[in-house]
Amino acid sequence: MAATPFATFVPLTAVLVPFALLAACSDDAPSTPGWAEVAPILAAGCVRCHGAPAIGGAPPTFRLDRYDDTDAPGGKILGAAAMAEWIAERAADGSMPPRFPLSDYEVEVLGNWAAQAKPGASGPLAPPRGSPRPDNHRPTLQVQATSRADAIDLSYELRDPDRDLVVGALTAQVAGQELRLGELRSGRGVLVLDTATLPAGTFPLTATVDDGAGELRLMAGEVTVTPPRPAPPRLAMSEATAAALAQGSYLAAAELPFPIELDVRDSDTATVQVSVELIDDREPATVVERKTQTVAGGRVVLTLGSAATPAGVAYRVVATVSDDAASHRVQSGRFRIADATTADTFASIAAAVLGPHCLACHGSFARIPGLTLDFTSYRGTAGAPGVFALRRRIFQRAVVAQTMPPGSARRRGNELPVDLRDRLARWLLAGAPEL
Q1: 39, 42, 40, 32: which is closest to 117 by C-alpha?
Q2: Longest dimension (CA), the chain
Q3: Please, where are the H alpha helices in 62-194?
Q4: List of residues 6+ apart from 181 with CB closer than 8 A
Q5: 3-state class of 143 per DSSP?
Q6: Which residue from 313, 414, 327 is spatially nearest to 404, judged by alpha carbons?
């Protein structure tokens, strides 16, 4: 496959920390700020977690690195405009950012912005984008393609003379259809165009970017795809399996043997061989258990672990699919098997921990856009996952990272005591029993 080098094209770039600092030195916050004043504050304090992708346990249903909503494969992702009221409330009560509260100036800017909200396309209430800075400069985008067996790597570099945070997406025009390749963000990155199922031809690339001044649609060169070779087999862990075995996660002993759900794809052979291995990740790494199965593709479930599997050890799961010509391997994060016991039930944990320390934000009555969790329910309700479904996220935020309850709770004298945090950890590690 050949690739055409790409020239310099357009917008997207770096975080506006300097502007946030300058704003904090001003005596009076603007009474009618626009996105040009709000974006630097969010870039400095919020988008590390609330960007795309979301990290640190932040919900993926909204993002604060862009003004408008985003259409994504999994559905619409709300932008900052749709979240303005929530942003202002969380900034004012000090619960967000969880560790480093914003200055009074920054809180006032966000409050004044949200106060201008009017009904609009971005959400029930959307504050204005406002006018860009008169001296705003266009960002630049460079894209370089590198071909390999079944894909083209698109290395990009996104820079902005104003050091604005720039976000957007890169798409390819294939057979009259727009194929979304992935998110663009200030700095350097690599997007992958999978050519295994694409027709041969030369396809233009288009970037849609936003540096805070508004969206720009830019031509970003083209890629040439040669006739595809037979596609190698592929597999991926299901979303549920990947979440359960994520880096730093755990499995309760009661969950063993644990089902490893795999999605297997192969287009050029009748059958493929799938294997899963439980790896003791201590040095030197050793295979504790291995299972194999010959399949024709589709959803495959193999179980690993038993009551005899040692607890307290760091493990990984490695899954491999192979045919006569090629193989493909994926692996989980590093997780542990817990051996904790508990006398607590959901009712006792709810009374001691969840009720006093969590329900202010995460009760069924709480109205937090994009963060619909119900800590009053073990199983959850329609559209609101309950405590059991969220047990691993609770463990990560409340036990491992200790970012929940947030810093604002500690400042109000409602900090989660060490003994209750340990009690919550034992209950979660024991499988979060309901009764």
Answers
A1: 32
A2: 72
A3: 84-93, 104-114
A4: 154, 169, 170, 171, 172, 191, 192, 193, 205
A5: strand
A6: 414
Which token pair is 163? 């050091």
Report pLDDT for 124. Answer: 58
Tokens representing 129 are: 């984008």
Candidates 234, 428, 277; CA nearest to 341 is 428
What is the SS3 assignment for 182-193?
A: EEEECEEEEEEE
Pairwise CA distance, residues 192 & 279, whole Å: 29
Phi, psi (deg, nearest 5) at residue 240:
-65, -45
Residue type, 171: T
- Which mean pLDDT values do the consecutive 10-residue runs of the chain (435 residues) have? 43 40 57 86 85 80 83 78 87 83 89 81 69 83 86 90 86 85 87 85 88 82 78 89 86 87 85 93 90 92 90 90 89 86 86 82 56 73 78 83 77 81 86 83
Are residues 110 and 39 in contact, defined by beta-carbon separation less than 8 angstroms? no
pTM: 0.43
Cα torsion through 61, 67, 73, 76, rounded to 10: 60
